[in-house]
User: What shape does this take?
Amino acid sequence: MAQEATIPSIPAARRPPRQERRRTRVRPYVRTGGRTQSKRNFAIEAMISVRNDAPWNAPGFSVEFHSVRSLCRRPTSVAEVAASLCVPLGVAKVLLGDMAELGLVTVHETQAEFDGHPALALMERVLQGLRRL
Assistant: This one.
């Protein structure tokens, strides 16, 4: 006689609040109107910062735009924005591309070598950072 596998339930203390559970039911690409590609090609290590002179009082900015505004008061990488918003990298790139087109954020691209690969100095800094972990 085969035993049925039981799925352990999540303790109530660790469950997200009811409002948060409802909010996460929205598919990530709904936030981008179904778009999966940004008009800009962002490197995941590119730094994003909010423009102080941006028209933030204009109507119609999404909740995500305001979340990015809070996150990027100091330069923040595209990867960190995606992780902080709990969205796939593609969604973050589309949102950031839209914001860059509207003049809300500044994109600080990393320097690449002539062949399009990241600069050796950048790779060495990343390696040193990983070793410190």
Remarks:
- Residues 5-11 have pLDDT under 50 and may be disordered.
- The first strand starts at residue 47 and ends at 50.
